[in-house]
Amino acid sequence: MGFGVTFPHAYVRLSGTTKANAKPVNANFGFTAQTISPSILWEPVEGYVISMPDDYMAMSEPHFSLLISGEQYRSVLAIVERWRKYPQPSYNLDSKNCVTFVKEIAIALRLPASNDVRFIRSPREFLEDLQLRTSKTNRIVTTGTSIPSANTKTQTVRTGVDRPTP
User: Fold this and answer.
1) What is the pTM of this model?
2) Distance between CA atoms of 11 and 130, rounded to whole angstroms?
3) What is the pLDDT of residue 43?
4) What is the structure's pLDDT at 123?
5) pLDDT averaged over every residue in the chain
6) In this structure, what DSSP letter does residue 162 have?
7) Dist. CA 63–CA 81, nearest whole Å
8) Sequential DSSP letters for 36-89
């Protein structure tokens, strides 16, 4: 799970191979407003699930990685599809944004995501808190930029946030 350079700020990356058929997995998902404008501050706007190219992902800051089961992998994909199908306008800065998207996935993966409202507009702080909470469960494989090999025969979830642009 991580933080990206532009919108979406928080994202989930899936990498590795499926255990059932050794199919390679390399996907990332975030949720953002279709158009970034002042109107997102006071009203819902069109939103969408976005996947970014590998060069963008290389510039982002991963927070932690963990191994997930095939069932959990399918659960993440189901959440992504549900968010893709929400009626428009679907993005709300204070109730349905990149943080709540990643939080829903974290909860589906049985991670101890906080319900503290102070994180709703703070993807970095949300992910740092999630990393700290998850580290106490002994489920984190790596933190920071070190990611397990894509040949792990399972899916790896990586969360992250965008690095601030200089």
Assistant:
1) 0.83
2) 13
3) 96
4) 92
5) 83
6) P
7) 24
8) -SGGGGTS-B-EEEE---HHHHHHSEEEEEEEE-HHHHHHHHHHHHHHHTPPSS
* Nearest alpha carbon to residue 162 among 1, 4, 6, 11: 4
Question: Measured between alpha carbons, how far is 11 from 50 in angstroms, rounded to an integer?
Answer: 9
How big is the CA angle at 109 (ends 107 and 111), to the nearest 5 degrees?
60
Max intra-chain CA distance, the chain: 47
Residue reference for tokens 């350079």: 5
- Residues facing 161 on adjacent strands: 3, 61
The residue type found at 8 is: P
DSSP label at 165? P
Q: Left (φ > 0), alpha (ψ -120 to 50) or beta: where does 72 sit?
A: alpha
Q: Which residues of the chain have pLDDT under 50?
A: 4-5, 7, 145-155, 163-166
Rounded to whole angstroms, the Cα distance separating 157 from 123 reads 17
Q: Residue ranges of the domains in the chain? A: 2-161
